[in-house]
Amino acid sequence: MKMMVDLKERSYPIILEKGCTQRLSDVLNTSKKTFVISDEGVPECWKQRILTQLSDAVLFVVPQGEDSKSFEWYEKALKTMLSHQFHRKDQVIALGGGVVGDLAGFVASSYMRGIDFIQIPTTTLSQIDSSIGGKVAINVDGIKNCVGAFWQPKLVLIDPEVLSTLPKRHFNNGLVEALKAGCIQDAELFQIFETGNIEEQLEEILLRSLMMKKRVVEEDETEQGLRKILNFGHTIGHAIESYSMPQFYHGEAVGLGMLLMCEDETIRQRIRKCLSRLECPTDIDVNAEALFEVLTMDKKAGKDSVSVVVIDKIGEARVETRNFAQMKELLNRRETE
Ligand SMILES: NC(=O)c1ccc[n+]([C@@H]2O[C@H](COP(=O)([O-])OP(=O)(O)OC[C@H]3O[C@@H](n4cnc5c(N)ncnc54)[C@H](O)[C@@H]3O)[C@@H](O)[C@H]2O)c1
Ligand SMILES: [Zn+2]
Questions:
Q1: CATH number of 2-165
Q2: Ligand 2 mean position to 177 CA, how many Å?
Q3: DSSP structure string for 230-278
Q4: Does ligand 1 lie within 6 Å of residue 126's CB atom?
Q5: Is the whole model's pTM more than 0.85, yes or no?
Q6: Which one has a higher pLDDT value, 188 or 293?
Q7: May I ask the CATH class of domain 168-336?
Q8: What is the pLDDT, as a whole number, of residue 193?
Q9: N or C: less crowded end of the chain, CB within 10 Å?
Q10: Which residues in the chain are classed under CATH 1.20.1090.10?
């Protein structure tokens, strides 16, 4: 199944098909010089699958985990490209989860003022969410994604087959982004999480999530308005992700963020049930003070207010502004619940 993300001259196809990573020459120029960025956790079989189909490739592997989205690895990647004499007409492939996609995309956006970028996402999170939309970034001084760019890929190749090796916790973690998609735009998608068979309906989940993200990105590429609804659960989620111990994964933190921010009690309980079915955490000891502090540092926060996503009904969302005092009040309430 092929769909186009329509962004005028930056339009690109997303291909969602089991086994599509075995047929690269059908969809991309495999004789072009290619810098493949991956991480140590991506199984060798997927790296070899890609490399054996490319006639002129350099593989660059970073350690797994968020710390690779750093100046250090960004610089190493650029220097390796220079030492291998990569040019403007060459291409970068990201083969991995959101960490690899964000780092590789930022490398591609800035190397020689920007070269072609292809996403081959290998986690549920990256297949559903991070590989499309063109947001690429690294973290600096513990602040997530604060240095980056909008750099759209030329192609996104989504092969559900590569998820077969993904540990269950990561598998479920990524699906929280699909649950979020259901909450804000697609009640039928939400229904799958509430009462459906999540594993059997995986391809439908991927497709519906991608369609939602495609629609929103097409309408608002650089997040001037509508795209802000994608941040449901994220403002607080990022705060939880930054300070919490034990460390929550991105999707897990976003799930908790959705629960903390959802003001409608019935909807909140329905989201909680879906998160439980995904074996994701539903309770956290809220430290209102610490959360508030990280929240006000968020790059999307204003001088004295933040944007929050309000769900009035499953499948329908709108963005509102809350001042810091209101946020403090909400967090204090959650702390004592
Ligand atoms: N750019 C965006 O729009 C956007 C959106 C959402 C999240 N993100 C970013 O995405 C990142 C999280 O991404 P993630 O959840 O994919 O985590 P991740 O990239 O860290 O991948 C999770 C783990 O799975 C391993 N892995 C990857 N593919 C595998 C496979 N097929 N089999 C077995 N193991 C595999 C990796 O080595 C890693 O250890 C965060 O940095 C977040 O900020 C970006
Ligand atoms: Zn997210």
A1: 3.40.50.1970
A2: 6
A3: GGTTHHHHHHHHHH-SSPPPHHHHHHHHHHHH---HHHHHHHHHHHHHT
A4: yes
A5: yes
A6: 188
A7: mainly alpha
A8: 98
A9: C
A10: 168-336
